[in-house]
Structure formats: structure tokens, C-alpha cells
């Protein structure tokens, strides 16, 4: 019994000495890290010392503990003293197959979350962002009832009620300095009032025209201000001739690729 114990201790000492000579992570270190990472991923807590030893075909818990101490020194893991199952992985490490499957799973989960988060905003038609031009009253029904703009709910202000919003396609370049270009889509919250400086979609009843401008209420008139230095503001002397349709809450840019 004494000889066997002595022999076992000698072998253990030699293995520890060999481990000390290695720089960085050995293959066994990596196997331990992969096992710890995947075990905690699956169960939510760390394995026991004996379970770690079984995973790397090492029966000596002392040697396993030695490897864990090395990993702790290298800041791959942390432990709370000698408390069982208290290992925390600081630098996750997965086997190639597991890493790929984990990435695929995370990607699928992200896609599913994004799809679940999509909302459909009805596309009501076009609005002019230039000098107002006559538009038929049916223009806001230009698109069929199934037309819509899909957008992530998280991109919209939290206070907005999605069911009340609608989208319009912009025509013209009077708002280019506000980063609203021809072909862009704007998301509108219905409102018949506005405060100075807000971007609004308006209908000019007396002219049967639509336009997208900044709203300013002055002493005896309303000024519709473009965001384009080459264009003049529009002055409305009779406020009753102007009907505010809504306020812009979001702009969706449309990027056009050029074929060379």
C-alpha cells in the first residue's frame, strides 16, 4: 500500500512539473475550458471537480485542481475559494463544432427576435417636399390597402402608438438639409396641431396642394420653411387654409445604387 501510494504521488508530481513547463494553454487546459463553457451554457452552473476530471480522463482531483488554479491565475476562470460548483468562466471557449452551432443558434434567435419585433406601417401615398404642386385628393390612396412599410418596433419612439402611424413617400428636395431626400419614406403621427420648428405634412385646402415643411407660427401668418437654401419659405396669411395632417416621427432613407 505504501509503495503504491508513493508511486502514485511520484507520477502526480511529474505530471504537475510537466504542466508547469508549458507556456500558455495546453491541450488539457483548452479541453477543460471547453467543457466548463459548454456545461455552464447547458445547465447554468459549473461542474464538480470530479466531473471536470472525467471530461479530460484525469482521475486525480488534485491534478484537476492544479489545472484550475492555473486557469484562474491566467484569468480564464474565477472561483470563490473552495466552494463547490463556484467556477465562473471569464473567457468562454468552445470546440469548433459547438462554436459554430452556438453562433448559428444565436443568429437564428436574433433573426426570430427581429421578425417578432417588426411592425407594419401602412403606406398612404406620396407627399411633395418642394414647391407645392396640385395633388388629386385620391393620391393618399395611391397604394393598395396591403401596401406597408415593415420596421422594427424598437426603432420607433416608445411613446408612439403604432396603430395610429402611417407612411408617405417623399417627392422633391426641399428638405435635403434635414436629411430628407427624394424617394425617402417618412413616418407620420396624425395631428392637427404643431409647435414651431416641427416638421409637418400639410394640406393647403384653398390650393388643393400638399407639402412637407418646417412649421412656424408668426404674428399674422404661418411660415412653412424648407430645409433647402435655394428655396423660399411659403407664407400662409389665412391659417384656416392650412390643414396639418401630422408630424414626422421618423425618416427612412432610401439608398439608390448607381450602375457605372
Search tags:
alpha+beta; 26% strand; two-stranded antiparallel sheet; 30% helix; 12 strands; 5 helices; ten-stranded mixed β-sheet; Arc Repressor Mutant, subunit A; 260 residues; single chain; Umud Fragment, subunit A; 2 domains; disordered N terminus
Mean pLDDT, nearest integer?
Answer: 78
> If helices are DSSP runs of H or I spanning 4 or more residues, what is the number of helices?
5
Shape: rod-shaped
Count of structural domains = 2
The helix/strand series, from N terminus to C terminus, equals HHHHEEHEEEEEEEEEE
Biggest β-sheet description: 10 strands, mixed
Runs in which pLDDT lies below 50 for 5 or more consecutive residues are 1-7, 19-23, 133-143
> Strand-residue fraction?
25-35%
Number of strands: 12
CATH homology superfamily name of the largest domain:
Umud Fragment, subunit A
CATH topology of the largest domain: Umud Fragment, subunit A
- Structural class by helix and strand composition: alpha+beta
Instruction: Quote the distance from N terminus to C terminus.
Output: 85 Å
Q: Class of the largest domain in CATH?
A: Mainly Beta
Proportion of helical residues: 25-40%
Rounded radius of gyration (Å): 33 Å
Can you walk through the features of this model?
The chain has 260 residues and is α+β, with helices and mostly antiparallel strands. It folds into two domains: 2-111, Arc Repressor Mutant, subunit A (Orthogonal Bundle), CATH 1.10.10; 117-252, Ribbon (Umud Fragment, subunit A). The chain is built from five helices and twelve strands. The strands form two sheets. Strands 3, 4, 5, 6, 7, 8, 9, 10, 11 and 12 form a ten-stranded mixed sheet that branches. Strands 1-2 form a two-stranded antiparallel ribbon. The protein is rod-shaped, with a radius of gyration of 33 Å. It starts with a helix and ends in an 8-residue tail after the last strand. Mean pLDDT is 78; it is low at 1-7, 19-23 and 133-143.
